Amino acid sequence: MLFQRIQELTLAGEPNERIAAVVAPEATYVFGLLATGLGDLGGLGDVGGLGGLGDVPAPATQPGAKA
């Protein structure tokens, strides 16, 4: 969905700054839907009302990750 939107704007000749400005709020909305749909899958908790995806640690801090 977002990829198609970026393609449309690119093919329409929109500059990168405009594409970013248009797609950023759409991406927030889409990822919010995704997070809501996933809920607390995997026990990730809930940070910022995003259904728990906001508090996943960076890969280097996850158990078993190589630094």
Task: Report what the structure shows.
49% of the residues lie in helices and 0% in strands. By secondary structure, the protein is mainly α. The termini are far apart. 6% of the residues are buried. The C terminus is likely disordered.
Supply Rg.
16 Å
The largest β sheet comes out as:
none
What is the residue-averaged pLDDT?
72
Given the helix and strand composition, which structural class is it?
Answer: mainly alpha
- The count of strands amounts to 0
Principal-axis shape equals elongated
Spell out the helices and strands N to C.
HH
Q: Low-confidence runs (pLDDT<50, min 5 residues)?
A: 51-67
Strand content is under 5%
Query: How many helices in DSSP terms?
Result: 2
N→C terminal distance: 34 Å
Helical fraction: 40-55%
Pick out its properties:
67 residues, mainly alpha, 2 helices, disordered C terminus
What is the strand and helix layout of this fold?
Elements: H1 2-11, H2 16-38
Helix pairs in contact: 1-2
Short description:
The chain is mainly α and 67 residues long. It contains two helices and no strands. Helix 1 (2-11) runs antiparallel to helix 2 (16-38).
